[in-house]
Write a structure and sequence with these properties.
The chain is an alpha+beta fold. The chain has helices spanning 4-19, 25-31, 38-61, 69-94, 99-109, 115-134, 143-220, 222-250, 255-268, 284-305, 338-349, 374-381; strands spanning 272-276, 309-316, 320-327, 353-357, 362-369. The protein folds into 3 domains: 4-175, no CATH class; 179-250, Single alpha-helices involved in coiled-coils or other helix-helix interfaces, CATH 1.20.5.1930; 255-381, Heat Shock Protein 90, CATH 3.30.565.10. Helix content is 70%, strand content 9%. One of its GO terms (molecular function) is kinase activity. It comes from Deinococcus aetherius. This is Two-component sensor histidine kinase.
């Protein structure tokens, strides 16, 4: 699952507001309907340039985080006010076609946290748009363009406000997730440090004492010194076994535990996890490899695929086990990222294979053989 396609998709979505600037063709056309003086042209071009700068700035700041909401609200209010001033200043030159500025203003006021403010100011823009009919400037025949403009004004404010809310919620979720990951990493480091201290502190102290004793007895009592050295060897072997067992525990607590962690991560991202069928008993190396593969796949789903559902199945095959992880995200057959490349290398080291199908979402199929090496397999899985 490569992040290239979602990144391109996000870039297009971020640039999408610039396409709406095409509707400035209406006030430009209204201005060009009649010959204008140099002063009128200078006023029109200057205000239009100022509006464009304000519009681009507001939509650049719409890429908000949970901590920049106040900055974004100030720019949204500035954008709305600037659009209103531009409309009134250019109304004698553009007429009703200048109503496009009111629609732009409603779209910009949506990018702030207060729903009531967005709707009330959008209604104010609608009232301003209707104002020329109250004064008799427009005739009933002009209603053909007024009705859709009123609808566009309200829809622009509400839709952009909803988009703003989603961005803030996503930013807050990402911030919480990063904090949880940081706290989990800190807790894991503390646990490892505590375990290693408890595991090796006493053992190494005993080894040092017995080694010193053996050195002192080497000339006076060689037999006793040899016995102490053998004892050091025995203690060292026991410590090595205990370290290997501890490292094995650090590598993972099994596929079931990894599925539980995957569900927590996917739930936080608004993705549903479906596990089809019961999980069969797996050899330790296969289970460690499957857990690592699931972790990497879920990480990619959360970060890149924009999926709504992930399906996981693990079945027995004629020569081993097959793990299938399928999502309904963007899919694609673009270049593989480092995560997927690393998964392939681990699978090859285990004697298995990994295939990817990006036609409908992304489907990863991992085939684990029955004869995965124990210690070697585990070491390669966690490389």
């Amino acid at each position: 699952m490569t992040p290239a396609a979602p990144r391109r998709r996000a870039l297009v979505w971020d640039l999408f507001p610039l396409f709406w600037l095409a509707f400035l063709a209406f006030p430009v056309a209204g201005f060009l309907e009649r010959p204008r003086t140099a002063g009128q042209t200078l006023l029109f071009v200057g205000l239009l340039a100022a509006f464009l700068g304000l519009y681009v700035t507001v939509f650049r700041f719409r890429m908000v985080t949970a901590r920049s909401g106040e900055v974004q609200e100030r720019w949204a209010l500035a954008g709305w006010a600037g659009s209103l001033v531009t409309y009134f200043a250019l109304f004698p030159l553009t007429g009703g076609s200048g109503g496009a500025f009111l629609i732009y203003g409603a779209s910009m006021i949506g990018f702030q946290p207060r729903t009531a403010l967005a709707l009330w100011l959008a209604f104010l823009n609608m009232a301003v748009m209707v104002w020329p009919f109250w004064t008799g400037t427009y005739q009933p025949d002009d209603l053909w363009w007024l009705a859709p403009n009123l609808v566009f004004t309200l829809v622009a404010a509400y839709a952009n406000h909803a988009s703003y809310g989603q961005r803030v919620a996503r930013a807050q979720l990402e911030q919480v997730q990063r904090e949880k990951e940081r706290l989990a990493a800190d807790a894991e480091r503390e646990r490892i440090a505590r375990d290693l201290h408890d595991l090796l502190g006493h053992t190494l102290s005993v080894i040092v004492l017995k080694s010193e004793l053996a050195g002192k007895l080497a000339e006076r009592d060689p037999a006793r010194a040899a016995q102490e050295i053998r004892e050091v060897e025995r203690i060292g072997r026991e410590a090595l076994t205990e370290v290997r067992a501890a490292v094995h525990g650090y590598r993972g607590s099994g596929l079931s535990a990894e599925l539980a962690r995957a569900k927590v991560a996917l739930d936080a991202a608004g993705v549903r996890l479906n596990v089809t069928g019961p999980l069969p008993e797996l050899p330790a190396p296969t289970e460690a490899g499957a857990a690592m593969l699931l972790r990497e796949a879920v990480t990619n789903v959360v970060r890149h695929t924009h999926a709504r559902e992930v399906e996981v199945s693990l079945t027995r095959t004629a020569h081993g086990h097959r793990l299938v992880i399928r999502d309904d995200g963007v899919g694609g057959e673009g270049p593989e990222g480092s995560g997927l490349t690393g998964m392939r290398e681990r699978m090859r080291a285990l004697g298995g294979s990994l295939t990817r199908d990006g036609t409908r979402g992304t489907t990863l199929t991992a085939d684990f053989p029955d004869d995965v090496g124990g210690e070697a397999g585990l070491g390669l899985v966690t490389a």
